[in-house]
Amino acid sequence: MILVLIVIIAAVIGIYEFLLRRLPAGTTIAESTFGTVEVISEEVTFENTDSGLQLAGILFKPADLDETVENPAIVVTGPMLSVKEQAQSIYAARLAEQGYVTIVFDYSYFGESEGEPRYLELPDIKASDISSAVTYLSSLDYVDAERIGGIGICGSGSYMPYAAILDERIKVVASVVPGTTMDSFIMEPLEQVEEDRIAYENGEAEPTYINLMPRYYLDGAKYYFNSARGARDNWSNQAVSWSEIGFADFHPTQLISQLNAPYLVITGENAWSRSGAESLYNNAVSEKEFYLVEDAGHFDLYDLDPYVTEAVEQIVSFFGMVLN
Fold first, then answer.
1. Between 20 and 30 A from 129 (CA), which of 74, 173, 223, 250?
2. Which residues contact 320 (CB under 8 A, 6 or more apart)?
3. Beta-carbon neighbour count of residue 130 at 10 Å?
4. Would you list the DSSP string of 30-43?
């Protein structure tokens, strides 16, 4: 009987691992770059201008960039809990091929950036980090501080417009499969996580965590737990439990009415986040455009072609009207 159970468990694990690696029909994993334009990248660090924490980033630019003139630039940010080497780097590299200086970075408390406790996910900190990235780009002699845009993927599809509301140096914004329901991630009573926060800050306890991307969520697991796609050694599916306090008060589909910058929303026909993307677009009052990628699911637009290529083409067209 025990042998039979072992065989069954092994079979289930094998099927699960196969499903993780299986891609939708007709798609390929998007490379970080494509075409004939050589893109160079370099590791950079810059300071969060509010907290003083050092943030780790990657700067992308075309190899033939004319650094004697001021060029347009874009801050590219990724999903909740993400690190800079994931989906955002694919978009940043492809946009660099189109002549933009682009930057990705690890948010405070994540990846190679500073901040304790690790994996603290708070909208206000995300907005501050984005604004600090704009400050860093503006300091580069070959970047035009008046021509900086911002792109956010999934959770950052809400964080980026929020940052642009607070910092009008971001002249144009795109949300790609934006995640808008942070308040749905509240798993513990807010009173309890507030007690956890106080105990940690008083040195009385270690941080407590919530799991925001369980392995059994197969659509997400196909990306995050697949080494060919989004699996990275410095990524974690955990968030500090009192991140929930920030989630509870963050309502991006309401905040979006305060955005003044031109706004592009891109989502997938089959994305679980589609309704939130539609609400962001409908509630936006600035110049705006909505684009639906046919057949694409939410995680497909992180790194799969032809979907990423289609999204990048829309971004280049929309941003070009403002930044070029």
1. 223
2. none
3. 25
4. PPS--SS--EEEEE
Q: In whole angstroms, give the CA distance from residue 9 to residue 225.
A: 19
DSSP class of residue 167 equals: -
**pLDDT, tens digit (0-9, with 9 covering 90-100), for 91-137:** 999 999 999 999 999 999 999 999 999 999 999 999 999 999 999 99
Beta strands in the chain (DSSP E): 28-29, 39-47, 54-62, 71-77, 101-105, 143-153, 170-176, 209-211, 238-240, 263-268, 288-293, 304-305
CB-CB contact of 166 with 127 (8 Å):
yes
Residue 41: closest CA among 117, 115, 96, 79: 96
The helix or strand, by DSSP H or E, that contains position 136, with its residue range, turns out to be helix 123-138
Note the pLDDT tens digit of each residue in 212-256: 887 777 789 999 999 999 999 999 999 999 999 999 999 999 999
For residue 263, the cross-strand partners are 173, 288
